[in-house]
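Everyone, carefully examine this protein record:
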Amino acid sequence: MTLFRPLIFVLAMAAPNLVSAQGLFSPAITVNDSVVTNYEIDQRIKLLTLFRTPGNLPELAREQLIEDRLKAEEAKRAGLRLSEDAMAQAMEDFAGRANMSLDQFLVLLNQNGIDKETLADFVRIGVTWRDFVRLRYGNRVNITEADIDRALGNQAGGDAGIEVLLSEIIIPAPPPQAAQAMQTAQRISGLTSEAAFSAEARRVSALPSKANGGRLNWLPITNYPPALRGILLALGKGEVTAPLPITNGVALFQLRGVREVSQGQPDFAAIEYMTYLIAGAPEDTLAKATSVAGRVDTCDDLYGEAKGQPEENLLRTSLPPADIPQNVAIALANLDAGEVNYSLTDATGTVRQFIMMCGRTPAIDAEVDREAIRTQLRGERLTGYADGLLADLKAAATIITQ
C-alpha cells in the first residue's frame, strides 16, 4: 500500500491543473453538430483585443464563433475548400495589411498569447465565406452608372468637413531596434490618459512635436493618408491606435477630439514636397538640419542649400496622397507650405531626410475613379446579401450554450 502513496499524492496535486485544462478545452457552445470550446473563445478574445475591437469582447467572441461555424457549414455544403497555396497567400495578405511580414505578425501574436492556428481559422473562414458569397450572389449584383452617380453625390463633402485633434508619437525602429520599439509601442497603445501619452511622447518620440508632448493643433482629416483616416475616426476620445509600422519606425496617434466644420478642406489630388538628404553622424545631421531650417522659407530655397552636391541629395516630388510613403505622409500631415520636418532617418541613422512641404493641390478637377466606386458598391450589396443569409442560418440553427 505504501508503494502507491507517492503516486496518489502526485495525482492529487496535479488534479486541479488537469481539471483546469479539461475545462479550457471543454464545450462552451454547440452549433448544430459543431462544438466551440472555451479555449477558442479565450483565443478569439485575445485576437479581438490585439485588433483593438470595441465592445463587449467576450460576448462578441462568442457571437463571431457561432457565426463562423454556420459560415463553415454553408461553405462545406457548397463544396468550397481553400487550397494550401491560397491559404498561405491569404495569411501573407492579412499580415501585409499591418505592414508586416507573416513571420513578424506571428511573433506579435505569440507575444500576446495567440496561437498561429487561431489566426489561420480566422483568415480561412473569412476568405472562404467571401468566396462563397461571391459565388452565390455575384450574378444578382448589377451596379449601374446611375448608382455610381448617386454614390458620388452622397460622397460630396465626405470627410472634408471633419477635423481631428491628435497627439502623435513616432518611435525610431531601425532593424536592430525593431522588436524593442514594437514592444514599447504596444505598451503605449494601451494608454487612455492624455498626460501619460504626452509623457511617453517626450520620452521616446522622434518628432518635433515631442517638445509639446506630441500634441498637435486641429487638422483636417484629409491631411492624413487615406488608409489612416478610418483608423483615426474609429478611435474614441483618449484612445490610441494600435502600433502602425512605418519605414524604420512605429507610429502611434491618440485622439483628443473630433469636430465638424462648416467649411471643410477638400481632398487633395497631389501633394508636392521636397526631400533634402543630409549625411553624417546623427548629432551632426541634426545640427545641420536645424541650421538649414533657419535659412529657408520656400521649397525653391533648398536649391541653394544643395548647390554643388549630388543631384540625388535633393528630390522634388508631387504624388497623390495614397502614393506617398506612409512615414513621409505622416511627417507632412501637420505641415503648411514652407514648413519642415527633419525627424526621419534611414535604417542606419546616418542619413537624415529634411522634408519641406511645397503645397497641396485640391482634387476639385481630379478624375473620378468610377470603377473604384463600382467595386465599393458591389461589395456593399454583397455584404447585404451575406448578412441576410447569415441571419436566416442563425434563426434555423440549433445553438446550445453550456
Q: What stands out?
A: The chain has 14 helices and eleven strands.
